[in-house]
Amino acid sequence: MPDLGDRGNVNGPQPIGKVIEPPAEMFNAAARFMQALINGDTLAALAMTHEQARDQVAAIADSIKAGAYNKTEFFGKARVVKHYFVKARLIGAGPTPAVVQIRMGVEDDGAWKVREAVNLTGVKSGWTK
Amino acid sequence: MDKMIPVDRLARPEDHVLVPAERLRHARMEQGMSALGAMPYEDDFLKARMHGICAGEYQAMEAAGRTLFDFPDAPWEFQLDMARQVWDESRHAEIYTKLLEYAGSFYGEFPESEVLWSCTQAADPAARVAGINRGLEGLACDVFEQLIRLAQVMGDKVIERSIDYVLADEITHVRMGSKWMRKLCEGDPERLQRAQEFQDSIDTLFSFGGNRPRQEDVAQVKQKMNGLEFEFDARVTIAREARLQAGFTEEEIERLVKGMAKSVAY
User: Fold this and answer.
1) Pick from B66, B203, B79: which is nearest to B121 by CA?
2) Are strands A98-106 and A112-119 parallel, antiparallel or unpaired?
3) Which of A37, B59, B177, B259 sits at a 20 to 30 Å CA gap from A109?
4) How far is B84 from chain A (nearest CA, A)?
5) pLDDT at A10
6) Which residues of chain B are under the pLDDT cut of 50?
7) Contacts of B8 (CB under 8 A, 6+ apart)
């Protein structure tokens, strides 16, 4: 966002709250998940997936050609209470990266799992092209 | 250029997360939270509520701009009012963007849904202003009034005065909507009825399953915010005074309160 101006003319200490940073473990888990997709290792990706999102992840894993990508770049995140939506680009030698959006939630055992997944390759959001 | 455009064609930075409202509800319910959005008793209430409003201000700015574009044959005074509203909403978007930073958040911290934008997609300008200006801006009166009271309880003048400033504009927008809904439908009772039905559908969508009572009827619960402990509303309430100032009748407000229990939105 652009700088919206000088805050020096506002009284009192600010900001009044702290920005909540996503846990590093969440990003580590998301990175491992994306690497599994890059490797074409569907089983590893599914092992990090909550039951409710297995079909979504399996479909995305099917659509990603093993060896086509070699790098993950996270470029977006948003929080719903303690779950995180994460947007990632899978980059390879080809001109078009794959784009995947997942929602990560922490389980009772402390493991972060994918609770939903959307293939955003070629589209802007989960709604339309 | 298409006249009715889908929500994800709104310009947003690519790092923003746009998610259908249904998925946001699922994400909240999976964590044992109310599906209706952040509630006043949640730790994140202030940030999440202001973020939702901020996104709403951007979408309201875009909606008024679309209305201006979509109906070039509407009366010149109507177009002037819509242009004024674009300018108002852009200031509100800036104010809320700054308020988010003030509260330790930022625009984009939470996902943005389509729910407000979807309420703007009416083909008739009379229905458009009924839905946006009377339905959505009426809802804004409720939400803003509650945030102002919350800021007063917290002793936070920055939030209190900023939102009061925005609320004054929203009251004007509701009045504008009432004026144009009636004027555009003069001599055409069926068109007026369709416009009112469109507004009703939006009021129903936001009635939150019977969870929006009068201020005097709402339960007070203990809350913790920025190191302060206090009691505050457990739910979003109806802003009776602000709605009266905006031109809603007592009967309309009562209908909103009673209609809440009939919602099928959730």
Assistant:
1) B66
2) antiparallel
3) A37
4) 21
5) 60
6) 209-210, 260-266
7) A123, A124, A125, A126, A127, A128, B18, B114
For residue A38, the model assigns a pLDDT of 96
Per DSSP (E only), the strands in chain B are 220-225, 228-233
For the segment B51-67, what is each residue's pLDDT rounded down to a tens digit? 999 999 999 999 999 99
Other beta carbons within 10 angstroms of residue A11's beta carbon come to 7
Q: How far apart are CA B1 and CA B5, in angstroms?
A: 9
- Reading phi first (left if > 0) and then psi (alpha if -120 to 50, else beta), residue B218 is in beta
Pair of tokens at residue A123: 């589209």
Sign of CA dihedral A16, A17, A18, A21: negative
* Shortest CA gap A37–chain B (Å): 21
pLDDT at B262: 40
pLDDT value at position B212?
Answer: 63
Answer whether A111 touches B (CB < 8 Å). no
Put simply, the answer to whether A78 touches B33 (Cβ < 8 Å) is no
Q: Which of the pair, A123 or A85, is modelled with greater confidence? A: A85
- Residues from chain B that touch A82, judged by Cβ atoms under 8 A, are 31
Would you state the structure tokens that stand for residue B121, as one six-digit string?
A: 């997609």
Interface predicted TM-score (ipTM): 0.88
pTM to 2 decimal places: 0.89
Q: Cα angle at A126 between A122 and A129, to 5 degrees?
A: 40
Give me the residues paired with residue A91 across strands.
A71
